[in-house]
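Tokens in:
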């Protein structure tokens, strides 16, 4: 039986120079592109979701997003590059 290997990238809300990225709701805005709204609540996609790590806002991008929505994947990483956000890989 084969187990799925979870791979993802994390966009960290700090620039390469160490400054906090603004606006403060950037992660929620970005993840809103793939969210749904029901029962007066926002449900984020498991492929693209906001998080907080060590007090810093982040966006977690599952590698499956590249297969499911390549245009959104490209836009996200172009945004990260343009704004000099730190990106790390996780498994």
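Residues out:
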């Amino acid at each position: 039986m084969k187990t799925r290997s979870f791979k993802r990238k994390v966009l960290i809300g700090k620039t390469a120079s160490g400054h906090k990225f603004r606006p403060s709701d950037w992660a929620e805005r970005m993840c809103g592109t793939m969210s749904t709204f029901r029962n007066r609540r926002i449900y984020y996609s498991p492929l693209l979701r906001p998080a907080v790590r060590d007090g810093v806002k982040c966006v977690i991008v599952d590698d499956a997003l590249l297969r499911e929505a390549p245009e959104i994947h490209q836009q996200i990483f172009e945004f990260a590059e343009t704004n000099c956000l730190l990106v790390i890989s996780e498994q």
